[in-house]
Amino acid sequence: MSHSSSSSAAAPVRITSAELLMVRLEPQTVRTDAIQAFVAQETPILRLRMSDGSEGVGYSYTIGTGGSSVAALLVDHLLPRLMGQDPERLEAIWRDLLFSTHATAVGAITSLALAAIDTALWDRRARVQGLPLWKLAGGAQNSVPVYTTEGGWLQLPASALVEQTLAAREAGFAGAKIKVGKPHLSEDVARIGAVRQAVGSGFELMVDANQAFSRSEALRRARALGEMQLAWLEEPLPADDLAGHQELCAHAPMPIAVGESLYSPGQFADVLQARAAHIVQVDVARVGGITPWLAVAHMAQCMNVSVCPHFLMELHVSLSCAVPNASWVEYIPQLDRIAKSRLRIENGRAHAPDTPGLGIEWDWDAISTLALQRWQVAAR
């Protein structure tokens, strides 16, 4: 006996339109390091809409240059190719878009553009399923220790560093990062030494050289800072000096952290295979989105290497809680002017939000006011 149904199968969900807004956010404090100044955060915010009425919001960033190039790649090439696709096929979409721009990959502009799309698709998936991102992506832990980088900039004198770091400890942070790369190592030693003496041994200190050193100078400064009980020395060498980082990892007296200037899972694979990092600082925007971020985090997990992501705390808190080997979240508030939600910190730990999606409550009125440009792309 056969049965028939008058109802037809539901039409497949497809991506139907996209809205891209470019917002420029000025830093609230002066931020200089050994090689550059943080001029402004150019923030492309992408809103994808689906045929079933669902939507997802993603974003990316630069620190002052390249925002227009990211927008052009999205509007001219990636978003038109995205229209009509099944939003649940995240891996297929990511690979298709990567290979469609093969002549410009691997590179920062392509990865930053891919990240805006991929984070929007993950946001939509999590919202549809009614899950916060950290549970959807693994749910390994609901909080992660948090350190601050909102102080510690290179232009500050030692007295200001001490004052800021003591204030950070009192505010409940579990650690603080300080920039190094003064003209002579004695200056770095004096600055970090003053902070360590002030905060004692129970508070974690990280230092960041922002790729400023040669191999010999990196090793020299690492040894000079060896008695400071540092949690890590970050980006001591140019990011593509694989052999140099490998050598430094073998001889430095503190862990070496690398990754904010790497732009693909393959680059992280090279670093991990070469044992050229003790800590990987994979950045969800610079690596191309949540899909590749999770690939890097799990690759590091399989090699017993910690993940301490760079910047974007509003998104990285959820990703860090998704995996078991994330050991820190970096506090740099940068979305406060365009988001109503705030990072929840208790007892030195950042807690992942429980709202469905990325966990960022966007302030669309503020975004609309601050948007320098906007673009619309729709399926034909």
TrEMBL record:
Keywords: Magnesium, Metal-binding
Entry superkingdom: Bacteria
Residue ranges constituting the Mandelate racemase/muconate lactonizing enzyme C-terminal domain according to the UniProt record: 158-255
Keyword Protease attached: no
InterPro entries: Enolase-like_C_sf, Enolase-like_N, Enolase_C-like, Mandel_Rmase/mucon_lact_enz_CS, Mandelate_racemase_C, Mandelate_racemase_N_dom, RHMD-like
Co-factor requirement: Mg(2+)
Protein's recorded name: Mandelate racemase/muconate lactonizing enzyme family protein
Originating organism: Roseateles rivi
